[in-house]
Amino acid sequence: MVMNHDKVVVVENYLSANILGARKIWETFLVVLVIYTAWASPFGFGFLKGPGGPLSITDNVVNGFFAIDIILTFFVAYLDKTTYLLVDDRKKIGWKYARSWLIFDVISTIPSELATRIFPKSLQSYGFFNMLRLWRLRRVSTLFSRLEKDRNYNYYWVRCAKFICVTLFAIHCAGCFYYLIAARNHDPEKTWTGAEILGQGLWVRYVTAVYWSITTLTPVGYGDLHPVNAWEMILDIFYMFFHLGLTSYIIGNMTNLVVHGTIRTREFRDTIQAASSFAQRNQLPLRLQDQMLAHLCLKFRTESEGLQQQETLDSLPKAIRSSISHYLFYSLVDKVYLFHGVSNDLLFQLVSEMKAEYFPPKKDVILQKEAPTDFYILVTGAAVIGEAKSGDLIGEIGVLCYRPQLFTVRTKRLSQLLRLNRTTFLNIVEANVGDGTVIMNNLLQHLKDLKDPIMEGALLETENMLARGRMDLPLSLCFAAIRGYGLLLNQLLKQGLDPNESDNNGRSALHIASSKGSENCVLLLLDYGADPNSRDSDGNVPLWEAILNGHEQIAKLLLDKGANLNSGDVGQFACTAAEQNRLDLLKEIARHGGDVTRPNSNGTTALHVAISEDNVDIVKYLLDQGADVDKPDLHG
């Protein structure tokens, strides 16, 4: 139980927090190195002819850090996009990394000096190989995506910083590419730079290239088609009108694409801001503030990552929805203790009505003393009550017994739960009365097995409510008879239940009440028309149940209502008495009009059994009753 190991949990949380903190620091450090790479790679491509000097040394140091990160990646757990569970198996981590980014990461860390030796001459350009290191820019994109969703940073300034970085990178790359084209041309006079600029120092050449790059980027265009005569001017007028419309169309569509990709994040930030303002204005406790924000963050995550499972199911026809729910959750619900032994029809109906929901860490699912409206089945995650595991029920005592919840249930980590509404649950069970009895028996047995003082109190209160008939769960007459609940039995009979209804073994409530010696229940059943001569699947009748268990008063009541022992398998009754070496029971059978010499359904008589048991007294008694010593059984 979690509550018995608080120190262990605190240590685990402390270590997890330290590991996550170190990982964030390392990733932030790598982003700084990526920024350096974003400047150095295009610069080397455009302005340098080969490795050397401080820039080459710095490149190799940076490459070393990224090589270390490649090794560390083999030890970092990842989130499975199919199941959305954290995978920490080393083999699976390595295999996933090998199939995704490993090759690109390795190539981008190869030193330039080594590349010039192993690559063919056509690919030995220092700058060309350096451009492969721009693969690392994906880390910057990931960083900005995370910052846009982080409520600790202003969304507006994060977006501005992103646009500035993209613009500066585009200007820098364009300037380097412009200079590369000019520097590689065989005639310097036929380039945009001219021979004078090519002869200047490195700093002057770089600044000049960047200047013309940003000058070209910022205007819409220079108008390269320079008209000379009137017809060219007329054509140019129509072309410029066309260009105006085309540009408007392209810009409008690009704007829609950009806005569509960011509007959800913007709405999320607005919602977070509104929730934070509400919490501060009403001075809510910090724990409640955290729960509010965690819920909103989880909602955004489920929508952005396609996890809105219930919304998807609700949009489908009921037949398809039921089939999907059955495939996803039937095996889990089938293992829940409350539903052991119920019919497959009931399970299928329950699964179809369950709603899958996600709860963030430290979120209250059920509050102590809360009115019972729903109960939950844990699919993935963990909940602190003790500690619930996959397939455990939460809140079922409050729902079934209609009493305030006993505990506060709070999640430990991201958890998926199946929610079932109390009213829906009771409506389904009402159509399956026999299953209601099974469910209640499972609950009572579970409470008894827990051996917990609180649960023992709940068990006692539940049994008292059952005895008084104050339960909404549809129950059978057999359930009331087994437990001797006369008031409950009376209520069920008044509701119109068939007094002769039987369980899976054909035993009616009268069979059970007679065997238990419950005189009140027997009288109620007989008054409502229960058949005193009904047989179960083994041929037993209520009168035999009373005689077998020594309830003489019950036997008298049944005889007064017309019970006849011979309506049952009297031969089997006599065999049972002989097997138990009970001469007194044989005499009771005979006293109540039963023929002790008759064979059972297998042809065996009580005399056969008594002889095999070497019981001389019973043999003498049976012979006195007229038993045939030469009568064979089915085996001869």
UniProtKB/TrEMBL annotation:
The segment S4 is probably the voltage-sensor and is characterized by a series of positively charged amino acids. The pore-forming region H5 is enclosed by the transmembrane segments S5 and S6 in the Shaker-type (1P/6TM) and contains the GYGD signature motif which seems to be involved in potassium selectivity. It is found in: Membrane. The potassium channel is composed of a homo- or heterotetrameric complex of pore-forming subunits. GO terms for molecular function: voltage-gated potassium channel activity. InterPro entries: Ankyrin_rpt, Ankyrin_rpt-contain_sf, cNMP-bd_dom, cNMP-bd_dom_sf, Ion_trans_dom, K_chnl_volt-dep_EAG/ELK/ERG, KAT/AKT, RmlC-like_jellyroll. The chain crosses the membrane at residues 29-48, 60-79, 100-119, 156-181, 202-222, 237-259. SMART domains: ANK (SM00248), cNMP (SM00100). Residues 338-429 form the Cyclic nucleotide-binding domain. Belongs to the potassium channel family. Plant (TC 1.A.1.4) subfamily. Potassium channel. Pfam families: Ank_2, cNMP_binding, Ion_trans. ANK repeats lie at residues 505-537, 538-570, 602-634. CDD domains: CAP_ED. PROSITE patterns: ANK_REP_REGION, ANK_REPEAT, CNMP_BINDING_3. It is a multi-pass membrane protein. One of its GO terms (cellular component) is monoatomic ion channel complex. This is Potassium channel. It comes from Malus baccata (Siberian crab apple). Keywords: ANK repeat, Ion channel, Ion transport, Membrane, Potassium, Potassium channel, Potassium transport, Transmembrane, Transmembrane helix, Transport, Voltage-gated channel.
